[in-house]
From TrEMBL:
It comes from Flavobacterium beibuense. The active site is at H167. This is Galactose-1-phosphate uridylyltransferase. Binds 1 zinc ion per subunit. Signal peptide: none annotated.
Length: 343
């Protein structure tokens, strides 16, 4: 790596979103007065009678969960999107504009065991989650009013997760959301210019450099992206260019489950704490188009910076100007790579 990138302030370009992040590696040398501590692992029962996601319990909306044995999915009782919203448009002028948005919000319980998190689950059980993601993507995406299906997981109270039961969500919307829209535009432009997916070329360069690669298996690579914004941000990228998770072979589905588990296991060892993050899959829209430009991927945005309780806040300059980070993506990748060798 260019030594200037390791010593001096610089900006890095994110070709997926066409945005920049400020990297300030010299700031990592400054004294730190915040407390650095280790937390003991969370201790929760396998079944919590007060949890609205546990099998057999009543949910907040009054519905009762079945006695499910592995994965379970249901429509969110308090959805942010509604399928029966009326169509409307507000366009008074070039300033005051609004339009209706329809959609469906689903909740996926990863396991009936309240005490588990993804890194503690068996690969075979995580594979059931992957299979359900695929089923939901197909089912929701087949609705002509649904043009994008966003699959994601929030883990940890620090990330606003209101229930520790292992679960994720799916928000399926009529319009293409902002982040996938940016990636749609950049990948389409790159594909038309190079006749190859942006992430195929990027991934090959990362494998050759081996500076930010955390680990790989037969089908997937876990990498800290060159343009990472969050301290220990990572991406899971399939080695084979695919527009959607529905394009995976049986072996690739298991490979994704294995990669998901291993990366989150590594995270848990960074500060010896159940590591919080927001993770999600970005893939092709469900608008009926082929979208050969898309190369689906899974992103992880963990907030912790220096300890189990000290997080990276996007405040001040980050809110007003440009996202900024102190530790370089390379140093973060090296730490995660070293931990991987111990698992």
């Amino acid at each position: 790596m260019d030594k200037n990138l390791n010593e001096y302030p610089h900006r890095r370009y994110n070709p997926l979103t066409e945005e920049w992040v400020l990297v300030s590696p010299h700031r990592s040398k400054r004294p730190w007065q915040g407390q650095v501590e280790k937390h003991s692992a969370d201790s929760r029962p396998q079944y919590d009678p007060g949890c609205y996601l546990c099998p057999g319990n009543s949910r907040s909306g009054g519905e009762q969960n079945p006695e499910y044995k592995d994965v379970y999915v249901f429509t969110n009782d308090f959805s942010a999107l509604l399928k029966d919203s009326p169509d409307f448009n507000l366009e008074e002028d070039d300033i005051f504009r609004a339009e209706s948005e329809k959609g469906i919000c689903r909740v996926i319980c990863f396991s009936p065991d309240h005490s588990l998190t993804v890194p503690q689950m068996k690969v075979a059980d995580i594979r059931k989650v992957v299979d359900l993601w695929i089923e939901e993507y197909q089912a929701l995406g087949s609705d002509p009013e649904i043009n994008y299906v966003q699959i994601f997981e929030n883990k940890g109270e620090i990330m606003g997760c209101s229930n520790p039961h292992p679960h994720g969500q799916i928000w399926a919307s009529q319009k293409l959301p902002l982040e996938p829209f940016k990636k749609q535009c950049s990948q389409k432009e790159y594909f038309e210019k190079h006749n190859n997916t942006l992430l195929s070329d990027y991934l090959q360069k990362e494998i050759n450099k081996n500076e930010r690669l955390i680990f790989e298996n037969n089908h997937f690579v876990a990498v800290v992206p060159f343009w990472a914004t969050w301290p220990y941000e990572a991406m899971i990228i399939p080695k084979r260019a695919m527009a959607r998770i529905t394009d995976m072979t049986d072996d690739e589905k298991t490979g994704l489950a294995d990669t998901y588990k291993r990366l989150t296991m590594i995270y848990d060892k960074v500060f010896d704490v159940s590591f919080p993050y927001s993770a999600g899959i970005h893939q092709a829209p469900t608008d009926g188009e082929q979208h050969n430009e898309w190369h689906w991927h899974m992103v992880f945005y963990p907030p912790l910076l220096r300890s189990a309780t000290v997080k990276k806040f996007m405040v001040g300059y980050e809110m007003l100007a440009t996202p900024q980070r102190d530790i370089t993506p390379e140093s973060a990748a090296q730490l995660l790579k070293d931990i991987n060798q111990t698992i």
